[in-house]
Amino acid sequence: MTSQYNSRLLLISCCAIVAVLLVLPVSMSDLYAQSNSDMCYTCHADIGDDASEAYANSIHLKKGVSCAECHGGDRRSEDMDDAMSKSKGFVGKPKKDDISQLCAKCHNDADKMKSLGSSITTGQYSMLAASVHGSVEGGEGSELIMECTTCHSVHDIRKTSDPASSVSPGKVVALCANCHNDPGYMRRYNPSLATDQLAKYRTSTHGMRNARGDVKVATCVSCHTAHDIKKASHPSSSVYAETIPSTCGKCHSDSEYMKSYGIATDQESKYISSVHGNALLEKHDLSAPSCNDCHGNHGAIPPGVESISHVCGSCHPLNAELFRQSVHKPIFAERNLPECETCHGNHGIKPATVEMLSVGEGSICGSCHSSENGPKGYAAALEMNQLLDSLMNTIYYAEELLHDAEQKGMEVDDIRFALRDSRQARLQSRTTVHAFELGKFHEGIDKGIKVAQNAVNDTQEAIDDYFFRRWGLLVVSLIITFIVILLYLYIRRLERRQKAAAAS
Ligand code: HEC
Ligand code: HEC
Ligand code: HEC
Ligand code: HEC
Ligand code: HEC
Ligand code: HEC
Ligand code: HEC
Ligand code: HEC
Ligand code: HEC
Ligand code: HEC
Ligand code: HEC
Questions:
Q1: CA–CA separation, 348 vs 266, rounded Å?
Q2: Long-range contact list for 410-418, CB < 8 A, 24+ apart?
Q3: How far is CA 174 from CA 179, 181, 219, 220, 274, in A?
Q4: How confident is the model at residue 6 (pLDDT cuts 50, 70, 90)?
Q5: Which of these, 63, 75, 61, 133, lies nearest to 100 by C-alpha position?
Q6: By percentage, how much of the chain surpasses pLDDT 70?
Q7: Residue pair 369/378 in contact by the 8 Å Cβ criterion
Q8: Is 15 a residue whose pLDDT tops 60?
Q9: Gap between the Cα atoms of 299 and 292, Å rounded
Q10: Residue 77: CA atoms inside 13 Å, Cβ hemisphere, count?
Q11: CB-ligand 4 contact for 105 (6 Å cutoff)
Q12: Which atom of ligand 3 sits closest to the CA of residue 103?
């Protein structure tokens, strides 16, 4: 009895489930339409036109945005003519900038979006209008170079996190390249703009990984943003020189985000504390390199071991030229040592100091050269250091003497001016050191020492002269005083004689 009852119940339940399963797929959208009484969608879905098919998967349908929000008309009317009548505000197919204005109605209005239960970022229209894509001169009824729908599609708009979205990382590169890879199209707007960004991007680590489906690497919009794209020279551009370190750092400084790749995440912090970062970010010296000056804009690959001197050499040409002709060039290449980086580092480059040029513990030269190992380099480094010491000591001594002379009120500007050449020799030595050749180094320093020694001699002479003149003056004034006293006494005697003569 019980078992019979149970099996009947089971049968009924199964039928019910099957029935529900059969009905469910067809009625999902109906359910939506009924609950919103959106007859536009209901009728168009029945017809099965492209617009409603595309709309079926969109975020707008899911969020209850009606066809009538963009096209106007009466979404409750089941009658086609009535629903789509002008008197009910039907506008038909929106055109050109009217399209973006439609999107702006919601997406540029934070309150409206909130009332629709959404808290996503707003203001895309304002950004687009102020961006490089925002204005076109003589645009035949269109002020924007493109509409929102150029990138997002019209009806199949999805969450940007959905891989099927037209702007997902897998698709956005081709989207931008649609125009930017087309010289014919780009020439109409800006003939001077390069059209090789995609080609270069594909040679970069970013581009190669992107082509293989890696969604975490940088795409065009990671660096340029999607809506707020500005020319690189614009201070509020995401690729303005001073902003680039933080643009790259969004990913490269995020150890959690970069974990699966196993590369360092200290490039930005090291860069900020470097001589370059300090020059660019603190002194606003735009001639100092940002990340892209060493890595390229679109070909962001670390410069190869062999090409680092070319990268650095674009701004430090003399150092690079000397290095390339030096003994170290072939030796470093053979040992796969990264040229300039071996001694200076890459992201955390510090001001070069004379300490680098020594053989002591922790010194640069001393890290490879010792009295047993590479003794010639060891001897050279040692002697260079001593030469610099001599030069600096001589300059220091000359400065002291000059100061002394000036205190005595002596005129030594000429000597001070000449001494500048020895300081210049010190500066030049910082560059000539890159020949790693003792002879060449000697030449420059010797000249500097000679100039400084001359300054010492000249100042000394001037001071001697000063003393000589001071003693001379003393002697002369003593003699004069003596003569004056004699004269005085003589005159007194004369007077006395005259008085005596007059009295007698
Ligand atoms: C009862 C069916 C029905 C209803 C309701 C309906 N439409 Fe249509 N709609 C059609 C058909 C059929 C066409 C194609 C007619 C044509 O090509 O002239 C069409 C055409 C359109 C077009 C294209 C116009 C053009 O110029 O190419 C748009 C846009 C449109 N409908 C939007 C709406 C909107 C918005 C609503 C609700 C306010 C709506 N429709 C309600 C059946 C309907
Ligand atoms: C977010 C705004 C928006 C919504 C919502 C929207 N449309 Fe459209 N629709 C547009 C725009 C913009 C165009 C013009 C596209 C173009 O010029 O290519 C368009 C064009 C059309 C066309 C003409 C297509 C053609 O190829 O000529 C039809 C039909 C249409 N929409 C129907 C619908 C229907 C039905 C719905 C609801 C299921 C709907 N639209 C929802 C913005 C919208
Ligand atoms: C040049 C292509 C392009 C144009 C034009 C464009 N978008 Fe986008 N949009 C994108 C991309 C790419 C993303 C994804 C952003 C990301 O991954 O950081 C996006 C994201 C969005 C988002 C998600 C929230 C956000 O800001 O990330 C909204 C909403 C949006 N766009 C609306 C619009 C509207 C409205 C317009 C027109 C005023 C528009 N978009 C024009 C490419 C574009
Ligand atoms: C009636 C208001 C309304 C209009 C008009 C409208 N949208 Fe939306 N849109 C929404 C809402 C609501 C969402 C859902 C936001 C959410 O998920 O929180 C949305 C989501 C989106 C998203 C996905 C954002 C994300 O979080 O990834 C994009 C992209 C988008 N809309 C683009 C457009 C474009 C392009 C147009 C014009 C063709 C447009 N919208 C017109 C209300 C609107
Ligand atoms: C519909 C075609 C089109 C699409 C799609 C497009 N652009 Fe553009 N873009 C242009 C045009 C045209 C200009 C030139 C504007 C000018 O110089 O007046 C431009 C300018 C630029 C500039 C400024 C160049 C400069 O320094 O002068 C950048 C950066 C840029 N686009 C990036 C992108 C990115 C990133 C995407 C994809 C999210 C994209 N563009 C999608 C047409 C397009
Ligand atoms: C890793 C960051 C990064 C990526 C990814 C990237 N760009 Fe750029 N882009 C830059 C930088 C940096 C500049 C130039 C800055 C400068 O001139 O100082 C630039 C410049 C441009 C320019 C101006 C013309 C030029 O070539 O100098 C255009 C156009 C452009 N990018 C489009 C794109 C497109 C399209 C993509 C995707 C295929 C893309 N960018 C990917 C960083 C990037
Ligand atoms: C959206 C996140 C993101 C942004 C923004 C980004 N990158 Fe990357 N980058 C990555 C990821 C992920 C990798 C892959 C790491 C790997 O392959 O080891 C990568 C790889 C690299 C590599 C190659 C590393 C290697 O060892 O091969 C360089 C160099 C690089 N990025 C430089 C830059 C520069 C410079 C910028 C800014 C102009 C930048 N990236 C912006 C995510 C990003
Ligand atoms: C002065 C030139 C220079 C600047 C500026 C620079 N880099 Fe590098 N970068 C290099 C060199 C050189 C390498 C290493 C090449 C090698 O040894 O394989 C490198 C390597 C990298 C790598 C690979 C992983 C690693 O650490 O070795 C990434 C990622 C990277 N840089 C990102 C950045 C970012 C982000 C910035 C800006 C904050 C930046 N770089 C600024 C020269 C530079
Ligand atoms: C073997 C180590 C070594 C290598 C390799 C090296 N340097 Fe140097 N660098 C030095 C030393 C030592 C100094 C001088 C320090 C001092 O005298 O104050 C210096 C100083 C400098 C200076 C500051 C002085 C000036 O000329 O303005 C720059 C810039 C410089 N190096 C750039 C480079 C570049 C670029 C490369 C690659 C082409 C490079 N260095 C390769 C050791 C090296
Ligand atoms: C885009 C140009 C540029 C590039 C590329 C560049 N530098 Fe520099 N570098 C500068 C400028 C400008 C300064 C001066 C900063 C300051 O002190 O104001 C500087 C300073 C230095 C100094 C400190 C000089 C001193 O007086 O102590 C060293 C060392 C140096 N760079 C090495 C390198 C190396 C190594 C590379 C390659 C990995 C490199 N630079 C790439 C522009 C560049
Ligand atoms: C990365 C290792 C390394 C560093 C750092 C280095 N050297 Fe060398 N150097 C070598 C090697 C290897 C040779 C080949 C001959 C040898 O073993 O002495 C060499 C050769 C030389 C020579 C030529 C010796 C000869 O045989 O005529 C001189 C001079 C020299 N180095 C000076 C220096 C000075 C000065 C510094 C510091 C600024 C320095 N080196 C830093 C590795 C290095």
A1: 9
A2: 410/462, 410/463, 410/466, 412/459, 412/462, 415/455, 415/458, 415/459, 415/462, 416/455, 418/451, 418/454, 418/455, 418/458
A3: 9, 9, 10, 10, 37
A4: low
A5: 133
A6: 91
A7: yes
A8: no
A9: 9
A10: 15
A11: yes
A12: 35
Q: Find the 412 Cα to ligand 3 centroid distance in Å.
A: 70
User: Exposed/middle/buried for 390, CB within 10 Å: 0-12, 13-18, 19+?
Assistant: middle
The pLDDT, as a whole number, for residue 75 is 95
* Residue 306 confidence class, pLDDT cut points 50, 70, 90: confident
Q: How far apart are CA 230 and CA 257, in angstroms?
A: 26
Spell 21-36 as b/e; 16+ CB within 10 A means b.
Answer: eeeeeeeebeebbeeb
Nearest-angstrom CA–CA distance, 155 and 152? 9
Tokens, residue 139? 């645009």
The length of the chain is 504
The amino acid at residue 345 is G
Best mutation site among 65, 74, 98, 155 for ligand 2, i.e. most ligand atoms within 8 A of its Cβ?
155
Which residues have C-beta within 8 Å of that of residue 343, sequence separation ≥ 6?
356, 364
Between CA 488 and CA 250 the distance in angstroms is 95
Please name the residue whose Cα sits nearest to atom 43 of ligand 5. 179
pLDDT of residue 304: 79
Highest mean pLDDT, choosing among 11-25, 152-166, 289-303, 358-372:
152-166
Provide the token pair at 162: 């959905």
Q: Which of 319, 337, 424 most suits a substitution to test ligand 9, by most atoms within 8 Å of the C-beta?
A: 319
At 148, which amino acid appears?
Answer: C
Q: Which amino acid is at 312?
A: C
